[in-house]
Amino acid sequence: MALGVKKLKFPKQLANTDFKLELEQEGISEEGEPLVALKTEGKCIFSEKSKRIIDEDGKRIDLTGKIAIEGDIAPSLKSIASGSVVISGRKYEIYVGYRPRNPDGSVFMTEFDLM
Predict the structure, then answer these.
(1) What is the reported pTM?
(2) What sign results for the dihedral spanned by CA atoms 68, 46, 97, 83?
(3) What Cα–Cα distance (Å) separates residue 67 from each residue in 18, 32, 95?
(4) Which of 1, 4, 41, 81 could serve as a FRET partner for 26 with CA atoms 20 to 30 Å apart?
(5) Strand 17-28 vs strand 83-87: parallel, antiparallel, or unpaired?
(6) By percentage, how much of the chain surpasses pLDDT 90?
(7) CB contact at 8 A, 114 and 64
(8) Is 59 helix (H, G, I), strand (E, B) or coil?
(9) Residues with Cβ < 8 Å from 25, sequence gap 6 or more?
(10) How many Å apart are CA 91 and CA 98, to the nearest integer?
(11) What is the C-alpha separation between 9 and 108, in angstroms, rounded?
C-alpha cells in the first residue's frame, strides 16, 4: 500500500440490525422461479429513508430504505442488483447494489437500495 493511502473501515459499531439476504443470479429454474445465487444473514446498518425516482422507462419507483453490510458479501457474483432482504419480519426487494472500494481496490462494504 502506498504511503499515506488509507483504507476505509466499515463502522461495525453501527451494524446492529439483523438481516436475511437472498441474491439472485441470471436465469430461471425449471419451475419459473429466480435462481438463488446466495443466501446469507447477519448484522447490517439499516436506514429507513423514502425516495421516489423515475426509472429509464418512466416508471415511478419508491425506495424505502438502504442497508450496508461489512465487506464484499458476494465476491464471485458479477451483479448484486437482484434479490430480497428481510429486516424485522418485513421483506424488501433490492433495487440496486453497490460495492464501494478502497483506493487499493478492496471492497470495504456492500450497500443495497431497497424498495
Answers:
(1) 0.85
(2) positive
(3) 11, 28, 12
(4) 41
(5) antiparallel
(6) 66
(7) yes
(8) coil
(9) 34, 35, 36, 37, 77, 79
(10) 19
(11) 6
Mean pLDDT, residues 60-84 taken together: 93
Contact 80, 110 (CB under 8 A): yes
d(C-alpha 61, C-alpha 54), whole Å = 6
3-8 LR contacts (CB < 8 Å, sep 24+): 5/103, 5/104, 6/103, 7/102, 7/103, 7/104, 7/106, 7/108, 8/100, 8/102, 8/108
Q: Contact at 8 Å (CB) between 71 and 15?
A: no
97 touches 112 (CB < 8 A): yes
Quick one: which of 24, 93, 41 has its CA closest to 65?
93
Contacts of 59 (CB under 8 A, 6+ apart): none
Residue recorded with cell 471492497: 107
What share of the chain has pLDDT > 70, as a percent? 96
